[in-house]
Amino acid sequence: MLKDDPIANVLTIDLERKTHRIDRRDDLFDAYIGGTGVATKLLLDLCPQGCDPLAPENPIILAIGPMTGAYPLASKTVAMFKSPLTGDLGESHCGGRSALAIRNAGYGAIVIVGKSDIPIYVSIQEHKVFFRNATTIWGMSSNATAGKIIRANEPGAGYRTIMRIGKAGEKLIPYASVTAETYRHFGRMGLGAVFGSKNLKAVVVSGKGKYPVSDVKAYRTLYDELYQSAVRSPLMKKYHDLGTSININVLNGIGALPTRNVTAGKFELAGNISGEHLAEHYLGRRLACTGCPVACIHIASLREPYDDEAYFYKTTSVSYDHELIYAAGSMLGIGNPEHFLKLMDEIDKVGLDVITTGATLAWATEAFKKGLIGTGQTGGIVPEWGDHLAYIKMVKAIVEQPTGFFQDLAKGSHFASKKHGGQDFAMTFGKNEMAGYHTGPAGYIGFAIGARHSHLDNAGYSVDQKTLMEKEVPAEWVVDQLVKEERWRQVISSITICFFA
After folding, report:
1. 339 in Cβ contact with 278 (< 8 Å)
2. pTM passes above 0.85
3. Contact 306, 312 (CB under 8 A)
4. What is the dihedral of CA 154, 160, 163, 167, to 10 degrees?
5. Of the CATH numbers 3.40.630.30, 3.20.20.70, 3.60.9.10, 3.40.50.10260, which one belongs to the domain with range 6-212?
6. CA 390 remoteness from chain centre
7. Distance (Å, whole) CA 444 – CA 442
8. Tens digit of each residue's pLDDT (9 = 90 or more) over 95-144
9. Rounded distance, CA 39 to CA 33, Å?
10. Which of 438, 466, 434, 436 is CA-nearest to residue 448?
């Protein structure tokens, strides 16, 4: 860490008292690096044992790493909290401008505690913190609309971050997400519900901090080396060209693409929703997280004709990647790209995590087909594989909760299956819905033992593809590989480098 580096500053915001303080914590960042390390320590120190995840005492911790703003690919912010979905560790990562904005505002970590008496959003402008009344944007039907209103009223265009929730977070749905910069999310584990429980609509961070280096020439040499390594890497080119959606055809080819609630590993319509097909027919533009030269964010342009006017179209921009295509596509038997893009857009509007939503809808579809639930519970909706219109209705019902069944579905497939039956086909690990890899035992063991039950904890899917599909190895070896990889990834996420890097 640089001498007097402001990354050691921890900003603590009390929503109940509408106060804030800044603490210098060199001890914390020297011992735990940043990101996951620092956030974990703060969570252990600040979250009371046995705390209800939706109680005011559950802290929200946002932490970045020492390379943020200094080197390419160090673009992630780590959020840490107690998860309302699992009741255990809640950890979620987000890119966009979030990390650089926190860095330039002069902080390495932001801690948010307490609960406001009215809906508010917090605007952090370097050492100033403002508490804005958000009652007029609370309850808006579109997450994006609320974001536009905040953008119009806050300074820092071009270098700020706006982290906000939709109706799902306001309704305390335990798999609600937090959106940053329109196309990036703290998606998993229900951070959006924790925001909502605090009457916190959004957090805006901006600043123009500059941090001189002691040896400009050495710094420039290292920066250029890292930059060139990234832009010339075949792996990074893959992520730039097609993004993670390149995995759809690959996984489908080896029978590892979860399909129709994992009743199959191959989807006959996978080619229609593959990265290649989307790039050829729907890709509108690519975006990059701040400080990243790769630009792996792929945005589809969805054109929908108006019924009453010829040659006039509504154009919607929808971000897509492998996980979203799996969850709103193959997992639900949807093979029409326009249909799954419409479904993804609806999920994003209300502010739900796409992975948990897709897997939960998949469980509900199988439960319906097996007679565990009927139209009495679903309010007349008939879930059917491939029927995106039915699923869009169900997404809206998860938020509005017109029946007791949708109140249960709003708690995730683990809860719903315990109440209605079908636990054997609720695709969860540690109460967290699975990611889009049906690769084999290492992948599933990785889901089970990972700290946050994520495929990114230890990359078990990679062990399946690179080793277990080629030869037999002892089970102990597999577990050792997963543990070693997870340890290394804790270092990476403490530095807050993107895992793709």
Report:
1. no
2. yes
3. yes
4. 40
5. 3.60.9.10
6. 24
7. 5
8. 999 999 999 999 999 999 999 999 999 999 999 999 999 999 999 988 88
9. 10
10. 434
